[in-house]
Amino acid sequence: MRVRRRLLLVDLTRSRRFDSPFFVENLRWKIDLASLLYRLAQDMSRPVVAREDELFYKPTQLLALLIRSSGYDGCKYPSAMGPGSNIVLFNPEDAEPIKITYERVKRIAYFAEQLSPYENPYEEGPFDYLLHKDDDA
Question: Are residues 102 and 9 in contact, defined by beta-carbon separation less than 8 angstroms?
């Protein structure tokens, strides 16, 4: 795609890290916000499944509405298909396709390995372990 003008995007692919927690005001709020944005970015990158409940996508739809109403042209979020990222533009006229190609998928390979008894089978965000509600910030 080729953009037709300079765009203002919200980047949900970057981790919000802090140099030192001792020199950051409102640390708990910033970590909670970073954790929320991380979770929403992960939800945005989740593939759409036709039979899935529409309610699952409401938080990401609300996030997109908030971003749009704040004057942004779109947002960037992690790709579910690999290490890259995707960009959502709220106005389709802001970009034009350079070249469109169609591909036929002929083969898919899946690789799996058993988790050790010490590995957590549930995914955690990078900020889940930093602060808990009972901790003082």
Answer: no
Tokens of 35: 């954790």
pLDDT band at 19 (very low <50, low <70, confident <90, very high): low
Instruction: Write down the domain spans for the chain.
Output: 1-137
Whether 30 and 18 have beta carbons less than 8 Å apart is answered as yes
The pTM assigned to this predicted structure is 0.57
**66-116 confidence digits (pLDDT tens):** 889 999 999 888 887 778 888 889 999 999 999 999 999 999 888 888 888
Using alpha carbons, select from 36, 91, 84 the residue that is nearest to residue 62. 36
- The rounded distance, in Å, linking the Cα atoms of 43 and 125 is 12
Task: List all residues 6 or more positions away from 108 whose beta carbon is below 8 Å from its beta carbon.
Answer: none
Q: Residue 7 to residues 57, 70, 85, 88, 104: CA-CA distances in angstroms?
A: 25, 14, 16, 11, 33
